[in-house]
User: Fold this.
Amino acid sequence: MAIGLLGKKLGMSQIYDENGTAVPVTLILAGPCPILQKRVPDKDGYSALQLGFESRAGRTIAKPMLGHFKKAGVDPVRFVREIRLNDCNGFEVGQTLKVDLFAVGDRVDVCGVSKGRGFSGTIRRFHTARGPMSHGSTYHRRPGSSGASADPSRTYKGKVSPGRHGAVRRTAQNLQVVGTDLERNLLIVKGSIPGAANGYVVVSKSVKTSTKTHGGPTAGK
Amino acid sequence: MHQIVREFEAAHLKQDEFDFRPGDTVRVSVRIVEGGKERTQDFEGVCIRRQGGGMGETFTVRRVSYGVGMERIFPLHSPRLEGIRVVRRGKVRRANLNYLRRLSGKKARITEDLLRSRKMAGKKAERLRALVDMQGGTVTTDATTEAQAEASGESNA
Assistant:
């Protein structure tokens, strides 16, 4: 339950740390996020902040939603999500959260929708091994046996099969913040995050370690 | 690629101009840490490919030492890479010179590209280029020897 921001994945690149080691980084356009609403335990049963991200033309938005934005006194936004908090004190509706919430060395979790892979076989979907492609083999990329016969007369649970893969909500945990750029609302984290470029993501302080960690690569900027 | 990613990379890219292509013989200076001490090591060989773009651009250098072929892949924008010097400009017709791997001895030679050679700057190169155009792509022996003579004269000076 730590504070976070909404953002958008811009793409990946790489930088070099002081030892000259290449560090893979993902660039996230994080914030500015206006607070649209405060959820309070008395009324809503939990506390959270409702944040918005990326402006959107008012004429393309339904009237009830427009009213909601008007009440908060903020411009209409495209992406709205709640961030659960233990305590909402110190935050006001209409206030804008920016990327200075995070500092270099912080650990964050990034949540987004992974790339959709359509109807995929078990090799891509569950990383099963494939059969030989040649030497007379006819068993190339099949899912394998679904089980025995009369006994047990059923397929065991957990048997992997082809099916829809990807396009689900996934969280990349404990990513290191390598740099921030308040001017351009840029958050740079080490490693990859779910989804394609231009996908919306929720960045929050890591649930595993929300404290500053030792050392780490310095941001180029 | 997103504009902001491009700008981010632009701020991190080396500003030097890397004027070499596959086929060129290059001398690469790399910083290496050896027993706590840092020194520069040179690796000279033929650049057999340049791959990728932006921060991820790399190039492969191949050399044969003591009869053993050796290839190293260098990230172009790595801070460990101190410098790249073009020793010789080669004339090749493809971007990936993988065919060099199965060649040895005289077959593994690459013709020098005199038109791109630094040794022939300015008007002399222009004159030669004009000559090449006139004769449909072939350089006469006279022009070549003349150019080589001038080139060697300059390098001696």
Observations:
- The longest helix of chain B spans residues 141-156.
- The radius of gyration of chain B is 18 Å.
- Residues 139-144, 153-157 of chain B have pLDDT under 50 and may be disordered.
- The CA atoms of residues 10 and 54 of chain B lie 8 Å apart.
